[in-house]
UniProtKB/TrEMBL annotation:
<dbReference type="InterPro" id="IPR003265">
    <property type="entry name" value="HhH-GPD_domain"/>
</dbReference>
<dbReference type="InterPro" id="IPR011257">
    <property type="entry name" value="DNA_glycosylase"/>
</dbReference>
<dbReference type="GO" id="GO:0006284">
    <property type="term" value="P:base-excision repair"/>
</dbReference>
<protein>
    <recommendedName>
        <fullName>HhH-GPD domain-containing protein</fullName>
    </recommendedName>
</protein>
<feature type="domain" description="HhH-GPD">
    <location>
        <begin position="156"/>
        <end position="312"/>
    </location>
</feature>
<dbReference type="GO" id="GO:0003824">
    <property type="term" value="F:catalytic activity"/>
</dbReference>
Length: 349
């Protein structure tokens, strides 16, 4: 069922956005099979992550949208000890293969089969990790995005502030994504590569205000539309594979590969987290990426990605970019704000 709502004029146009009501379709019970402690809150919610409208969190519940093939799905998750219970909502034809796909994706996205025991053993001997371990122990890497979606996020994070990234993300999701409601929450859902394949670089630049990134997004759409997910999953070197896309350099490829492949040994450095890690690991205000990566791998061989994650999330823990919602008032305000949001003009860069 869809209900037309007015979200206000877009740049140079005015358009109705359909709010899709998703109905309950399934319940998945997903065991945490990886060794080591499990922290559901900090696995699902990362203090450093900026607001996208794709997910929302309270201290005990998380909501997230997923594209499963052509389906738009919403998932509400909570944990009971080492069991994650996911309630699935959709307005499409939900089939057994969708159930299997979503169960695999949730398990991989939230690291439910990830072995933390070796990292915990290494980190216990490193003084700078004492605070992160006390506050975040059991946090697993999380990447709900698929290969295409994380590529878009990496592109939008290039060389800009969080505020600018948030604006560009909002513009894209408002123009090309879906607006859905399920289980009392309103969220955005991603667009697929095929759904933006017709959009030109000029439109991305002028309407969505992507600046120089406008030339790269159509290349992403074409690449991921024609490159099956199974082939990407099986690729021997994802960083090299992604650098086949014109405009994708080592930094963006590293971000895409480390998140999408859940590589615990790899950590994509941007200017912000590089400075955090330089302070924590090298007692310096900043350092070259090579020096930071060398120290990470020296202290946490095979687990540099997990170590970098713990240190960065600990830095934001007391001042999160997107604070947790409280049930009731915060959720109502969230729903109202998201349903009324429009794409914002911003200075291209």
């Amino acid at each position: 069922m869809t209900t037309a709502i007015r979200t206000g004029p877009k740049p140079n146009q005015e358009q109705d956005v359909s709010l899709r009501q998703l109905d309950h379709a399934d319940t998945l019970e997903l065991p945490v099979t990886g060794d080591g402690p499990f922290n559901f809150l900090h696995t699902a919610w990362k203090p450093s992550h900026y607001v996208t409208g794709l997910e929302a969190h309270t201290a005990s519940r998380s909501w997230r949208t997923f594209r499963v093939d052509d389906l738009v799905t919403g998932v509400r998750m909570h944990a009971e000890n080492r069991l994650v219970i996911a309630e699935v909502y959709t307005d499409g034809d939900y089939k057994p293969e969708h159930r299997d796909h979503l169960a695999r994706r949730l398990t991989a996205s939230y690291g439910l089969d990830e072995d933390l025991s070796q990292f915990i053993e290494l980190a216990t001997d490193v003084p700078t990790m004492r605070g992160p371990l006390e506050s975040l122990s059991g946090m697993r890497q999380s990447c709900p995005e698929d290969h295409f979606e994380i590529a878009v996020v990496a592109l939008l994070l290039q060389h800009v502030t969080v505020a600018r990234t948030t604006q560009m993300t909002r513009n894209l999701l408002t123009h090309y994504g879906q607006l859905v409601r399920f289980d009392g929450i309103t969220l955005r859902a991603w667009f697929t590569p095929a759904e933006i394949a017709h959009v030109s670089a000029e439109i991305f630049k002028e309407q969505d205000r992507l600046g120089y990134r406008a030339k790269t997004l159509p290349r992403f759409a074409a690449f991921f539309r024609d490159y099956p997910a199974e082939e990407l999953t099986a690729a021997h070197d994802l960083e090299q594979t992604f650098q086949q896309i014109k405009g994708v350099g080592p930094y963006t490829a590293a971000i895409m590969a480390s998140h999408a492949s859940r590589d615990t040994a790899s950590f994509g450095l941007d200017v912000w987290n590089r400075k955090i890690l330089a302070r924590r690991l090298l007692s310096a205000d900043d350092a070259a990426p090579e020096a930071v990566n060398h120290r990470l791998n020296e202290l946490f061989p095979g687990h540099a990605g997990t170590a970098g994650l713990y240190l960065v999330e600990y830095e934001y823990l007391n001042a999160p970019v997107a604070p947790l919602l409280t049930p009731g008032g915060d959720v109502d305000a969230w729903n109202e704000a998201l349903a009324g949001v429009v794409a914002e003009p911003c200075n291209p860069r």
